[in-house]
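Write out the 3D structure for:
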Amino acid sequence: MRIDIISAVPELMHSPFNTSIVKRAIDKKLVDVHFHNLRDYTTNTYRQIDDYPFGGGAGMVLMIAPIDKCISELKAARNYDEIIYMTPDAPVLNQKTSNSLSLCENIIILCGHYKGVDQRVREHFITKEISIGDFVLSGGELAATVLCDSIIRLLPGVLGDETSALTDSFQDNLLAPPIYTRPSNYNGWEVPEVLTSGNFPKIEAWREDKALQRTKQIRPDLLNED
């Protein structure tokens, strides 16, 4: 998989991609991540990429020309499955979306910044818009990092145990059940006996029951989803 990230401040994202699971995936060449600074695509002498909104109002808007140039150059080199815009006024990211995007070969992620982008970018270039929640960040860089992490960990060979991702919360519209590790007794707080019994059918039944209980209590809305 190749991921191209377009940003006004790409340096915000360098650290998360140089650590932990994502870095190992890059080192193993399971994913290829490229950052593109919008200022490299402007013809403005001062490398300006934003301007005041037509009609007045507070804030600045990312201009269409640098974005067009960047996306056009990328598309000339390869085909892209999705061109994604990270913005708070979009459908919220969920596991189903991450699963779907993990099957793509090439994607572009455009990070919003300032007050956002010229609407014509959204109308003529973007194929998918994603939010990570009903709140506003200073820019889409952190949101893009979250999206990439959620996708990359699903790629074959990234996790040590590939079945691990299949038992995460939301994979089957349920929250994950409680988990425990050694010691089995700590300060008198004991691990449920069934988990140390070695009876795997009973363990799986216990986990399914606990997952359903937790979902009903914390996120009952998940049980109504298709």
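The longest strand covers residues 2-7.
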